[in-house]
Fold this sequence. Notes:
The complex is a heterodimer. Chain A is of the alpha+beta class. Chain A is about 30% helix and about 35% strand. The longest helix of chain A is centred in the last third of the chain and has 46 residues, at about 525-570. Chain A is rod-shaped. By secondary structure, chain B is of the alpha+beta class. Helix content of chain B is about 55%, strand content about 15%. Chain B has nine helices and seven strands, in the order αααααααααβββββββ. The interface between A and B is large, with 51 and 62 residues.
Amino acid sequence: xxxxxxxxxxxxxxxxxxxxxxxxxxxxxxxxxxxxxxxxxxxxxxxxxxxxxxxxxxxxxxxxxxxxxxxxxxxxxxxxxxxxxxxxxxxxxxxxxxxxxxxxxxxxxxxxxxxxxxxxxxxxxxxxxxxxxxxxxxxxxxxxxxxxxxxxxxxxxxxxxxxxxxxxxxxxxxxxxxxxxxxxxxxxxxxxxxxxxxxxxxxxxxxxxxxxxxxxxxxxxxxxxxxxxxxxxxxxxxxxxxxxxxxxxxxxxxxxxxxxxxxxxxxxxxxxxxxxxxxxxxxxxxxxxxxxxxxxxxxxxxxxxxxxxxxxxxxxxxxxxxxxxxxxxxxxxxxxxxxxxxxxxxxxxxxxxxxxxxxxxxxxxxxxxxxxxxxxxxxxxxxxxxxxxxxxxxxxxxxxxxxxxxxxxxxxxxxxxxxxxxxxxxxxxxxxxxxxxxxxxxxxxxxxxxxxxxxxxxxxxxxxxxxxxxxxxxxxxxxxxxxxxxxxxxxxxxxxxxxxxxxxxxxxxxxxxxxxxxxxxxxxxxxxxxxxxxxxxxxxxxxxxxxxxxxxxxxxxxxxxxxxxxxxxxxxxxxxxxxxxxxxxxxxxxxxxxxxxxxxxxxxxxxxxxxxxxxxxxxxxxxxxxxxxxxxxxxxxxxxxxxxxxxxxxxxxxxxxxxxxxxxxxxxxxxxxx
Amino acid sequence: xxxxxxxxxxxxxxxxxxxxxxxxxxxxxxxxxxxxxxxxxxxxxxxxxxxxxxxxxxxxxxxxxxxxxxxxxxxxxxxxxxxxxxxxxxxxxxxxxxxxxxxxxxxxxxxxxxxxxxxxxxxxxxxxxxxxxxxxxxxxxxxxxxxxxxxxxxxxxxxxxxxxxxxxxxxxxxxxxxxxxxxxxxxxxxxxxxxxxxxxxxxxxxxxxxxxxxxxxxxxxxxxxxxxxxxxxxxxxxxxxxxxxxxxx
Lengths: 674, 249
């Protein structure tokens, strides 16, 4: 009873058909063409509907000349009404088929749409009527649209309308369900019905798949991932959770707008309608095994449960030509004659995760300034001005065009000669193509300001990308650009003025350059320098040696003097020596005494006659002769005088006296000469 | 008599010819071109003299100025550095070098030395090599003289400590003289002649990139191997750069 309202609606439709089938019973096929308006503006749309009633075995309906003056923007939409009635105890089925095209005019004027041709299985052809449409400038739409909406659920975009309608139905269904559940809860009812719903295994009939075109890629290489909904049942499902794409840069592909026309795919012998929900280009940003998390979707699926009643038209629905209609057309699916019951089941769909093996880019041939570009690119550069002043700024535009991970490319660093400054570049990414690969361009604009006048050359910019097809790095270079910078009016010595140093350099040295110097050997490495050490050192050594020798010599002089004094003494005592050898003791002592006295008389310049012990002592004191020596001298004189009067002693005593006399005279000699 | 006059004339001419060897001419031409703001021509003339490798700082100074005017920063730095190597007290060259270096983009600033390193560098600058050499010679001579006099007996005997102290002073002076002489002949600095070269942690381009060295940076050479030079940047960092990118001062 849930579908009561629908059944009611169809019953009404049936009634109309049955009433109208009085004509149909005559087996008359009527084929008519109808336009929603006979007069239209150039900007308006018009619907052309071809309807065939009482079509038993209709094969094709071919519109003729619809494309000549008009353009088909939608359609054909098929509608079928099938009716059955019991006539004379026999069940008769009849069927109305209509094809609707939405067309827009190409130009103004009066146009005739030629009759369409329909063919049935028996080879009969039928023709519809021709249509006249007048096309004027502008739009007559508002007036008509109101009319249309009043009776036609199909607005401008019939597909949207269909979807809307379906959603309305589902909403109503949900409300019903809710209401029922509440009822059940109130009645403390049995949850069996609900369980029954959940038991239904839809995994073969409705699922999501994530399809990737590659599962082994390089870092930065594009992977195309499609999220596809496979369905064999009527459903209203929307994506509840998109996979989180950690580690990827994603760019969605443009989906055909508004027209979710399903594709068909056969898996395990079953035909599925495939809706591509989303198609993205993924660019892995890191190496390793990355996983695309499952995508999730939830919604309601309508499953068909065969009732006991047999379906007299089963053969019709099994016709592959109409297969698609079973699922896409709710009206049709709701057909009460099918003998099917519907059940709305909540579904939660989850795709299985997809693993992608990302290999790092090869190191071989990877330039140091590689900016991470993967794909296929071309580069170009442009400068807006080349003849400028220091007041101006120029824009250097570097454009990378191609397909690949455009957004991930680092802007290459600009290497400018000194005197030119640049600031952070402006980067604009534009994605122009989203059909099968992500293509577009990255426009990097460097602002360049010259600091000082002069001729400059902007060196070539190089850009390297990795081509995953060839597996090689490719480096592109732009042309160098020559700049001529003149002095501007506003002199700004930026950069230099900030320093504490004066603004401009000192002038050149102008003193005439007479001679060039080449010898820069430090003085300390020269022989001359060290010879100046060596010479005084040798001189000092020579001096020291000479001094030592002199000392030696002076020591010899003392020896000589001694020898001389000794000589004098020996000479004075020479007679005493002979007397000593003759052992003439008396004369020996006389002679020694006489020699000493004579010596003193000579040296002290005192005549022997006046010389006495006293006078001698005085003179010796005056000559600074030591007292010990004086005493020694007196002692030897006393000894000699005593020996004259009492000659004792022997030859040993005489020899001793002689030695003493020699010593004393020598000592006197030294003392006097000193 | 006539022959002698001719001979003398010939000799005079020869002397005159010797006096105007090309470099004097190049020098005056260079100065003229510089004054006429024909900097490229001026640089050409100065370069001809510099190619003879003279030990005259003014040649390099003027060449540096010409390159500065031509916006050739690295060549200007190189020539100012050469002038300063010959004469570290060349005030104008030092100033101009500063101005030139201030125009290097992303310049690597110089890490300031500790005070005693500064003193040592100031004392052992190549300009002082002769001074230290002469001073140490004078000290040596005076020590010898005093010793000689004391030997001759003309001076009172000196305490041995005074001789020890003066020998120590002499040693210090000699060390300074040698250090300055080494600085004077050292060839361990170079200027980066290419724009933004990369300094790597290993020779041969391996290892990590340590720094990007801008053109015109003066670096200290620490060693060389197979086309790569180990350098020390002004801020003290060390690494390897390609030898081709450097020109020795």
